[in-house]
């Protein structure tokens, strides 16, 4: 059945519902600046470009970011190459299968504010890069991903 010992620990720690609410306020005071900073970076770097949308949560521990369709996995991969570890693209979907490959769950609670600011700026740069590749690929019919994976000298040889 239920873990009565753990329930007792919670009752003793929080005392009552007011104790729990006060404890959660402390959590909010710690993580609110992180969410606000990520929102500021996203707005400054991406707002109005039409290449991404994100939630502005009022509570909770995640920001849900939607890239252009077909771009989420590539954004996560570019971030990983640059040293920023993100939750796998599509993690919010059953079996991690996002049919549009556009959702990324951002968890800004753990890093320091400085590290988070660097990561958020890098994330927005990757969103811009992958979105530009997608738009160019759509307009030119070229497979930009092949160019992205090729060695620079191979790309230059083909261009000449």
Describe the protein.
This protein is mainly alpha-helical and 160 residues long. It has a single domain (31-159), classed as Aspartate Aminotransferase, domain 1. The chain is 58% helix and 8% strand. The protein has helices at residues 4-14, 17-46, 72-81, 113-140, 144-149, 152-159, and strands at 52-54, 63-67, 103-106. Strands 1-2-3 form a 3-stranded antiparallel beta sheet, with helices on one face. Helix 3 packs across helix 4. It starts with a helix and ends with a helix.
Task: Summarize the helices and strands and which ones pair or pack.
Blueprint: H1 4-14, H2 17-46, E1 52-54, E2 63-67, H3 72-81, E3 103-106, H4 113-140, H5 144-149, H6 152-159
Antiparallel strand pairs: 1-2, 2-3
Helix pairs in contact: 2-4, 3-4
Give keywords.
160 residues; mainly alpha; Aspartate Aminotransferase, domain 1; 6 helices; 3 strands; elongated
Task: Summarize this entry quickly.
With 160 residues, the chain is mainly alpha-helical. Helices cover 58% and strands 8% of the residues.
